[in-house]
Amino acid sequence: MGVSAEDVLRLGAVAWLEWRGQHSQVPDLSDAQLMGLNLRGADLHDVDLRRSNLSETKLVAANLSGACLSNAILDRADLIDANLQSIEAIDFQAKATDFRRARLCDANLIGSNLTSADLRDADLSGVNAIAIDLTGARLRGANLDRIDFHRATLSYADLVATNLAHANLSQAILTETELGAAHLYRANFTQARLNQSHLVSIYAVLANFDRAYLIRADLSWANLTKTSFVKAILHQTNLTGADLTRANLTGADLTGADLTGANLGYTDLRGAILTGANVTNTIFTGAIR
């Protein structure tokens, strides 16, 4: 009886590389129990790892590009500098996993649980992350260009200085999320919940916050030029020094908002509610009311 692929992998990355070089067929490691192994630098590209358990496994600089990890468990695994490009990982679990500088571009992560994961400086461009849970995750400096976060949960996550250009965050939950200095060019936050989030100094030109909830959020000194806030709820929102030139605030509720020193030049304010708002030194040149 031949040695199984799982048995060979347990011998380490070197033995695995030699064995794989002798077998042309893509290995099937579905349902494998690989917890706590040291697989640093292992070549696992295109491997079937569905329902496998890789908890606390060391996969530093490993190549998992194109692998299938749907329903797999990678809790507390070490994937620093790993290549996970184009993986199929629907409903997989990677709680408190270290993905620093990992490459996950074009991956399919629908419905996955990455709560408290570390994704600092990782590349998640083009990722399908619909309904993903990233509560408390660290994504500072990550590339999230074109990512689909529709209905995702990002509450209490750190997205400071991330690139979210062209990202879809419609109906996402971002309660008390840190987004300071993030790049949000043309990002879509339609119906998103950003209550008490920190968006200080963001670049959100041409972004869409229509019908979004931004209650007590901090958007001070943000660049919101030509951004849309149609029917958005901005109760007690801090917009101190924000640039809202040519923004669309039609029907927006700015009750109690702080607009001190904000620029609302040529902004569309038709139907907007400004009851109790602080408009000290606010610029309204050319605004439509």
Describe the secondary-structure layout.
Elements: H1 5-9, H2 13-21
- How would you classify the helix and strand content by structural class? little secondary structure
* Poorly predicted spans: none
Share of residues in helices = under 10%
Instruction: Give the total of beta strands.
Output: 0
Distance between the termini: 81 Å
Quaternary state reads: single chain
Q: Output the radius of gyration.
A: 23 Å
- Which shape, going by the Cα principal axes? elongated
Average residue pLDDT: 96
Strand percentage lies at: under 5%
* Biggest sheet architecture: none
Total DSSP helices: 2
SSE ordering: HH
Describe the overall structure:
- It contains two helices and no strands.
- The chain is low in regular secondary structure and 289 residues long.
- The chain is elongated and about 80 Å long.
- It starts with a helix and ends in a 268-residue tail after the last helix.
- The mean pLDDT is 96.
Summarize the structure.
It contains 2 helices and no strands.
Supply database-style keywords:
single chain; 289 residues; little secondary structure; 2 helices
